[in-house]
Amino acid sequence: MPLPLLHALGWPLGWLSFLLSPRYRRRLLANAALAGVSRQQAWASVAEAGKLVTELPRLWLGRPVPVFWRGAEHIDAALAGGQGLLFLTPHLGCFEITAQAYAARFGADHPMTVLFRPARQPWLRDLVAGARQRPGLRTAPTTLAGVKQLLKALKGGEAVGLLPDQVPPLGQGVWAPFFGRDAYTMTLSARLTQAGPVRVMLSWGERLPWGRGYVVHVRPMAETLSGDAIQAATQINRAMESLVRESPTQYLWSYDRYKAPRE
To answer: Which of 181, 211, 241, 250 could form a disulfide with 3 if both were Cys (CB 3.0 to 4.6 A apart)?
Structure first.
């Protein structure tokens, strides 16, 4: 289906979820208010969350969509130096498109491996795994074997992508501030930088209006990550906040960022 039509269908879907689920509504508004986002911007994010759902079938199974770049020269420079690349992407905009766009442009010579949590339903797990694995793009599960896969990719001068604002299981993170409130934050992001010469990149996929496609934004992380786990997590959360502030209407404010980690 055409991307404009899919995004048009996502608008009412987002609002339907917002209106029918009091819990979803309270969390979205509370998280947005905590970050200082206006009520108008929070309301705009409702439709964007719906678009996030309706665009997935096209991104997983359909024809390529229009993609534009801002900051691709930073990737060129890092790859030319033989460095591994660690892409940190928050739940902002279309985070599926960032890995796909990298694979299409750079993956032939420097593949990307993305960390993901497999779905519990076998049919959905197989569908997602098949849709995400494509030329230049590999997937690694959130297991010890998956982490070893990420380390191997970085040591080989390849790229790795993950969502550092995803709440990890208990024992795999630390409490660090995110928009002024402590959130359980993964330590894996910082540990991966110890795999060798690794360049940390901040990236996100901006969803253009009227289904015109996406803009992949990339920039090097300004700070060198600390060797202290809590300090490094704080630095990463601060970097994610800076990306979210660029387009707060496209952040997934309904994500339960402040939940207690599971066992």
So the answer is: 211
CA quadruple 114, 88, 252, 65: dihedral positive or negative?
negative
pTM of the predicted model, to two decimals?
0.92
d(CA 51, CA 147): 31
Q: Are 78 and 221 in contact (CB under 8 A)?
A: no
- On whether residue 143 sits in a domain, the answer given is yes
SS3 258: coil
Q: What's residue 162's pLDDT? A: 93
141 pLDDT tier (thresholds 50, 70, 90): confident
Q: Which domain holds residue 188?
A: 66-250
Residues 6+ away with beta carbon under 8 Å from 9: 50, 54
Q: Please say if the pLDDT value at position 20 is more than 80.
A: yes
Is 261 domain-assigned?
A: no
> Helix, strand or coil for residue 55?
coil
Domain total of the chain: 1
> 126-129: long-range contacts at Cβ-Cβ below 8 A with a sequence spacing of 24 or more?
127/60, 128/60
Structural domain contains residue 57? no
171 in a structural domain: yes
pLDDT, position 124: 74
Pairing between β-strand 214-220 and β-strand 198-207 as defined by DSSP bridges: antiparallel
User: Collapsing DSSP states into helix, strand and coil, what is residue 183?
Assistant: strand
Instruction: For residue 69, give the H/E element and its range.
Output: strand 67-70
pLDDT, tens digit, for every residue of 33-89? 999 999 999 999 999 999 999 999 999 989 999 999 999 999 999 998 888 999 999
C-alpha span between 154 and 83 (Å, rounded): 8
* 156 touches 82 (CB < 8 A): no
